[in-house]
Amino acid sequence: EEQSMKKLGRIMFGSAVGVALLISAGCTTLTTSVSNAVNLKEVDFSKEMKDGKSCQYYIFGLLGPFGDASVMKATKDASLSKVEVVDHKYGWYLLYSQHCVVVYGQ
Fold it and tell me: Is the pTM of this model over 0.70?
């Protein structure tokens, strides 16, 4: 009986580790907007740029969106007067997903 208790303990520990790995696992991707495209040859990437970010979240891919992933919010939050580049970042996780807009400028 002691042997079966040890085996059960190992199975429970392995299951807990597996669940923890699934919860912490996720995927992310970053895309650059092609609508409202700007001529990137005119953007001076050597100068220091400020960035701002705004996100929205979905629970189980069904509930949401919660939050505001807009260029306007990201621009206001970073106090930018000129937006030069806009990126979109997506993240998918076990329990939720997110979409963020990242703006760069002055």
Answer: no
